[in-house]
């Protein structure tokens, strides 16, 4: 790994302007242009370079890139009353030079598919019609595809993915850590009563309006909170990563030490199919024993295994890294080892690694992991931040592949968009 300096590309952005509805003129202040910015360091493998192509997007969550290189960024909170930022690349150089804000709802998920822009709030999904230039034709009246999903202000990001048969799969995370519905008891009910509406993935039509839980197929269950989810065209299936549970020592000090709470459970990656069951809240995955362990709320003691009918993860990662997006690379500009492999954006920090805010890579062959995972992009938090005790400078969240084969990463803390490419 070599250390590189992120290029301060903001001088290119001085021509930013709003180009659509007059009511959106406030969007010109969202992406701040500066002639010079302090350099930021990230670590990348030899041959890769990185630049910042936009800034000022505080709360930038997932990102979608159209075939012409224009970007749509979902904002986790409203900016000037808007929750979607459109960054237009007018000359195809991979750097946006015009922008527009629209959408009156915050959220996480966003995607461009078959002439539509799909975007999620924290309780549903909307879509906007796109024209031949991949621009929204009417920013004020989107179609509401899904509504009424549970939102209790915790783990409420409604990430989603679209397949090639007009289906949309929407995640509803659990607002409960381990199904303790009674805050005066450490014993959780069996079965967990909230699994009917949270802790899983629901399948809807992507072209039907005003759908609710009643219209959905309960596609997968037993996943506490999925934010990183994508469709893999090579396998014709969904891949997703789960945020693991917390509070093992805090709630059950008789079974778990403080150190175990920092190291358990693993963050886990799955290939999903209809009927998938990750086992939450009944079990968690131990990355050291490589076993599904019975949760203490259901009689576990840190030694008992469980989850006979729950599927095993295909890859596990250190605890508390918080996977927030995943991309299978299909471009040809990166070295051959990255072809069809998975880039995973981690939004948190691992006590085991004493680092975080990084992008990992998992090689795949024939649709399956083919080697150990590795750190691909590191030090988004800033050089030496882990030892300094300071807050991170950047926190990567979303990832997308551009038409030129570069990858773009959003930063919901520093508000930047990073462009990572191979070669000059």
Q: What's the topology here?
A:
Blueprint (H helix, E strand, L loop, with lengths): L1 E4 L1 E2 L32 E4 L3 E7 L5 E6 L5 E9 L2 E7 L9 E5 L7 E4 L2 E5 L4 E5 L13 E4 L13 E3 L4 E6 L27 E6 L11 E5 L4 E7 L4 E6 L5 H4 L6 H6 L3 E6 L3 E2 L5 E4 L4 E4 L20 E3 L5 E6 L13 E9 L4 E8 L1 E2 L2 E2 L4 E4 L7 H4 L7 E6 L5 E5 L5 E6 L2
Parallel strand pairs: 2-4, 16-20
Antiparallel strand pairs: 1-3, 4-32, 5-6, 6-7, 7-8, 9-10, 10-11, 11-12, 13-14, 14-15, 15-16, 17-18, 18-19, 19-23, 21-22, 24-25, 25-26, 26-29, 27-28, 30-31, 31-32
Main features:
mainly beta, 424 residues
Describe the structure.
By secondary structure, the protein is mainly β. The protein has three helices and 32 strands. It has helices spanning 248-251, 258-263, 385-388; strands spanning 2-5, 7-8, 41-44, 48-54, 60-65, 71-79, 82-88, 98-102, 110-113, 116-120, 125-129, 143-146, 160-162, 167-172, 200-205, 217-221, 226-232, 237-242, 267-272, 276-277, 283-286, 291-294, 315-317, 323-328, 342-350, 355-362, 364-365, 368-369, 374-377, 396-401, 407-411, 417-422. The strands form nine sheets. The protein has a five-stranded mixed sheet with strand order 2-4-32-31-30, with no helix packed on it. Strands 13-14-15-16-20 form a five-stranded mixed sheet, with no helix packed on it. The chain has a four-stranded antiparallel sheet with strand order 5-6-7-8, with no helix packed on it. It is globular, with a radius of gyration of 21 Å. It starts with a strand and ends with a strand. Residues 1-40 have low confidence and may be disordered.
